[in-house]
TrEMBL record, chain A:
<comment type="function">
    <text>The GINS complex plays an essential role in the initiation of DNA replication.</text>
</comment>
<dbReference type="InterPro" id="IPR008591">
    <property type="entry name" value="GINS_Sld5"/>
</dbReference>
<keyword id="KW-0539">Nucleus</keyword>
<dbReference type="InterPro" id="IPR021151">
    <property type="entry name" value="GINS_A"/>
</dbReference>
<feature type="domain" description="DNA replication complex GINS protein SLD5 C-terminal">
    <location>
        <begin position="165"/>
        <end position="220"/>
    </location>
</feature>
<dbReference type="InterPro" id="IPR031633">
    <property type="entry name" value="SLD5_C"/>
</dbReference>
<comment type="similarity">
    <text>Belongs to the GINS4/SLD5 family.</text>
</comment>
<dbReference type="GO" id="GO:0006261">
    <property type="term" value="P:DNA-templated DNA replication"/>
</dbReference>
<dbReference type="InterPro" id="IPR036224">
    <property type="entry name" value="GINS_bundle-like_dom_sf"/>
</dbReference>
UniProtKB/TrEMBL annotation, chain B:
<dbReference type="InterPro" id="IPR007257">
    <property type="entry name" value="GINS_Psf2"/>
</dbReference>
<feature type="compositionally biased region" description="Polar residues">
    <location>
        <begin position="177"/>
        <end position="194"/>
    </location>
</feature>
<comment type="subunit">
    <text>Component of the GINS complex.</text>
</comment>
<dbReference type="GO" id="GO:0000727">
    <property type="term" value="P:double-strand break repair via break-induced replication"/>
</dbReference>
<feature type="region of interest" description="Disordered">
    <location>
        <begin position="175"/>
        <end position="194"/>
    </location>
</feature>
<keyword id="KW-0235">DNA replication</keyword>
<feature type="domain" description="GINS subunit">
    <location>
        <begin position="65"/>
        <end position="164"/>
    </location>
</feature>
<dbReference type="GO" id="GO:0006260">
    <property type="term" value="P:DNA replication"/>
</dbReference>
<feature type="domain" description="DNA replication complex GINS protein PSF2 N-terminal">
    <location>
        <begin position="2"/>
        <end position="61"/>
    </location>
</feature>
Amino acid sequence: MEDDENLHALLDTQDDEENEIELSPAVLIEVMEEAWLNEKFSPEILPNKIDFVELLLGQLSAMEENLENVGDRDIKKTLHLLEVDRLRFLVGSYLRMRLEKIEFYVDHILKQENSRLENREDLYLTEAELTFARNFKEGIDNHFEHLMRVHPTIPVDWKNQVIQPNIHSFVFSRSKTNIESIIIDEGNDDETVYVNKDSQMIISYNSVSNLVKKGDVQLV
Amino acid sequence: MDPEEVEFLGEKENVVIVPTFNYGVIHLIAGDIGPFRAGLPIKVPLWVAINLKQQQTCKIQQPDWMDVENLEVLKENEKNAITFTRMPNEHYMALTKALLKFAPDDLIRANEIRTLVKDIWDIRMSKLRSSVDLLIKEKSSYAAVDNLTILEINSVRPLLPHALDQIHRMKKLQGPQLGTNSSAGHTSSYSFRS
């Protein structure tokens, strides 16, 4: 919990000085773990955490560099290498999950990103992810165009069938603070509930999506 | 989520080991561990403990809650309580499994621990199944799942969220007359606690 407070304090300073994020490595790992779980369970792609990813990767390469000078029989070396492997798995798994989502929902995600661009909002994808998404879409579109030319009788409205994530899908959540009201979509009329810190629920994702992005709710 | 990934999270839990070697502080990225003094207990993450144990350079101390007497109390409590009791550790299953696998010689009455923890797990799973059954029958839109550990949540993940999603879709299609029915008298806010 203490770490959480530190984190919030640190994140506040982040707003002031754009490019400088100062986090203790331990907190950094925690942020990464939370991002990993959130990304794993949220049906839609979440705002990217590339700053944290890069910081952590920086830590990892620095550590690997240092280890080159350490003898192989040193106890220290095995433990450090093991930790580096664990963290690489974490970052790798996180990035892979995002790519999977981009591939699956490419049309939907690009549409959303375009409207964010128009409204001058922060993009969810990183620059590299955006390039990947655009190339991927181009490849897919070309491929289908090509296929369809062989069967000209097939109607062309398949292009308008965009695969969208189901934001109504149910998720398990843990609240990190007291939350005044969560709106429950009852299908027909809505209901609001008060949620205590640390309580766990199974709930529709769209009821908590904003809280997840804000960091008040953790998906588990 | 794969069970291995839940284990991965559990391996961050701290355990106390008694090293058989001397070594200075090791500056891991996640924080410092050490200094190690032969014979002096020290707290380290589980993954470190397992690694050292595999090299036979430490003994792992059994966590207090893993005492057979304590587990028996926990089991009784779990049996008598209608709701889920709070487990001594979020990753009690992962910890027990890891210690039984890698350090059975460091545990006191290891076989009884195995049986008791399995019993507690079974009681909780049967509770979970009947709660889920009720939840589905009441067509709830949300439920509190306090005190469930991640591994337990993970065990219902393949089915429960999808079932609720289907119910939600049906509710939407059914129209308002049934909707008012479900929101009357708070039956919709069925809680695992009640």
